Predict the structure.
Amino acid sequence: MLHRLGEVVGHSAAGVAAAAFVLAWVAVGATYRFPEWWATVLYSVAGSVTFLMVFVIQHTQARQTAATQLKLDELIRASARADDGLIAVEEAPAAHLQALTDLTLAERDWK
């Protein structure tokens, strides 16, 4: 569900629809002289949408990161010179990652 929602709100038409909604909201509010509850409803809707979008964005980023990691792992597997120990290294503990970073920097030729 979050994946599909991310696709929908990521489309350019979603931005146009949001702008149209705000313009309609202002027009209707001006017609009724902005009753006291008008701002409360707007703030509640905006807060709810923002809260939901945090999870949509997080889901989308996690999915894209996982796909990128799978592609990188496949490139490591396909390369004869690559270190197969780096496959899925993102799952390693922080100390192991730091040790690999230190080793890589020590082996790097800075010339």
